[in-house]
Amino acid sequence: MSLPTHKQQQECLGAGFTPLREDANYWKQANSGRGAFIVDGESYFRAFREAVIQAEKYICLLAWDFKGEIELLRDESPEDEYPTKLVDLIYALLEQKPELEIYILLWDYSMVYLTEREWLPFTRFRQDPHPRLHLVTDSEINVGASHHQKVVMVDGGFAFCGGLDLSTWRWDTQAHQPEDPLRVTPDGEQYQPYHDIHTAVTGPAAHALDELCRQRWQRATKEEAPWPNPSSENTVWPESIQPNFENANAVFALTYSEYKEYPAVTQIEELHLDMIAAAERYIYIENQYLSSHTITDALIERLGEEDGPEIIIILTQDTGGWLEEGTLGLLRCRLLEKLVEADTHSRFGAYFPHVSDEAGNESQVYVHAKTMICDDRAVMVGSANLSNRSMKVDSEVMMTLGLDEAAEAAPELLRRLLGIHLGHSQDKVDQSLATTNSINQTIRDLRKGSHHQLRNLEIGCAGPVRRKLADTQLLDPDDPIDLGYWLRKATRSDDSNQSSHNWKRYAIIAASIAAVFLLGLGLKEAWGSVIDKESVETFFQSLNQSPWKLPLLFGIFFLAGMTGISINVLLVSATLVISPWAAFACGFGGSLLSAVAALYVGRMAGYPVLEKLFHDRLDRLSKKIQDRGVLSVALLRLVPIAPFVVVNLVAGISKMKLRTFVAGSCLGMLPGMLGVVFVTHQAKSAYSDPSWQTWLYLGLGIAALLGLTFGVKKFIK
């Protein structure tokens, strides 16, 4: 990381903790008026209800998730006449405030989160529409990216911004009791303690967030935001929230990935790096994830300094469900290993919150916060995780205080958070910090005998293959998973200087084959932690003993073909851990059935989806498929110029006959899948029994695959 030059520093607007470089490490800066840090969901849900009840003109919500059935107040009856359930509150406000307009901009979410999302309130919004309720799902972002900003704007002069969604699993008190009967989903299901941080601001800082809402609305709808411009007067403020700062310089930074005419924005990553580089005494971090190699490398650099800052990271012991545990959790383990290895001066600590009660109940606390505090003067709070996605892919917003003049709210928030996590008063925390002059030592001292503790995270990445996989960015890419990019690149009309770049393509394909094999070995090594924390061999042994082994494997390939998961990666994994023939038979049959299913999906509703992905390239691919029939489909299967599911959908759009499509798919899939299974099986044999025969067969198999690939690609052009 290179620091700004002296000339750049002189040109910066901020001259304090770290230089401010407009459009590079921040988007806007504005006076905060009144402001507050809101810790945990119980406080935020109450403050949100109080704020929106005061609205007169408009409310705008930017949301990653939205659960209308949540109860904003638990086990109490408010004195006002408004409901406590979110969806009922929205309708009551519209009914009783004739000039109020409500705008909800919700991410048009990935199918990955289908089981976590709610349909009932959206059905109610559409079945019982209100002329002053405007619900828009925002799809103007790369496939594989998400709109992750969480902002609520009230009448232009008051705003919430931070890490909290109006969603399930967010409500909890600061006590984080292991067994709290009020901490339940709308369905009555209890969940673990949950910790998060949000902000509230007024004045010009709120106006800046209003501008962000307008930009997002225009991007999503292609129309200017219909609500009125904010005025300088503001009367909205939740009575349950005590202001923590006034007239502070609030700096806002954003993340966006490049999409259509919108450029990439990586201000949040830059500001993190600048603040990490500037810290002298300590860097205190609370975050849901740690998977950014860039951020970790910056922390490692500071740990290597003889007089560098103390670094404290608060995370969750278990990162979440099986998907997060096997991807971001694996990455976190490896990055924490690197941080421990770099901690030659004993200034690093990684912890997770743990709570217990007198009855012996205990639980970890799930950390959803995204905050960083440096040197008792600068504090950053917002929506961005310390992941490659949040730094480069998703839409994010962070608010920072103390980059010019020190923010008094920064040390107050630090002591407040440590008091919550350690079960002590802020005064007790302050006394310990003054005595030890160390956050790490204060944590170690105050957690003794307390029901609220910050326990040491278990750090270790078992197995060399899992460690090697974690060292890559395969599990947390820093580019959007934009399927359209593949098609646009493959079907570009500019073939100039193509021959001079052949060697690059050969190297990429060879590296891809090696990567697929290594990834298969990685999955074989790590699958236990992904699925059920047992080894993959145990999992497949039980599967082999089941009479449903083949149907289950068949179903896995069917779902992969429908959702865009790499079939070749699954082929490699199944070949490595089950058998080559079972992998081929189930892979071929499941993929073919999913191709037929996607064909019919494409016929019914495919065009709008693909138009979003591929824009002007859609017609070209459709023409390729329609014009060549069986041969075209076979060639596209052998050397696809678009992902498997996309070819299937486009074939449905092009009205191709079913028998033509099936015949072409069989003809094209058969040699390719056989080749992948053969090469994988031989690679496994060469790995376990490295004789010259196994290496010879492996080399011949790779050569055959490369020859088939290049020959067909040349023919198809």
Automatic annotation (TrEMBL):
Instruction: Domain (PLD phosphodiesterase): give its ranges.
Output: 143-170, 363-390
Specify the species.
Answer: Thalassobacterium maritimum
| Spans traversing the lipid bilayer | 506-523, 552-574, 581-601, 630-651, 658-680, 692-712
Q: What is this protein called?
A: VTT domain-containing protein
Q: Which InterPro entries match?
A: PLD-like_dom (IPR025202), PLipase_D/transphosphatidylase (IPR001736), PLipase_D_fam (IPR015679), VTT_dom (IPR032816)
Keyword entries, A-Z: Hydrolase, Lipid metabolism, Membrane, Repeat, Transmembrane, Transmembrane helix
One Pfam family, please name it: PLDc_2
Q: Which domain of life is it from?
A: Bacteria
The family database entries (CDD domains) matched by this protein are listed as:
PLDc_vPLD1_2_like_bac_1 (cd09140), PLDc_vPLD1_2_like_bac_2 (cd09143)
Q: Do the record's keywords include Metal-binding?
A: no
Q: Which reaction does it catalyse?
A: a 1,2-diacyl-sn-glycero-3-phosphocholine + H2O = a 1,2-diacyl-sn-glycero-3-phosphate + choline + H(+)
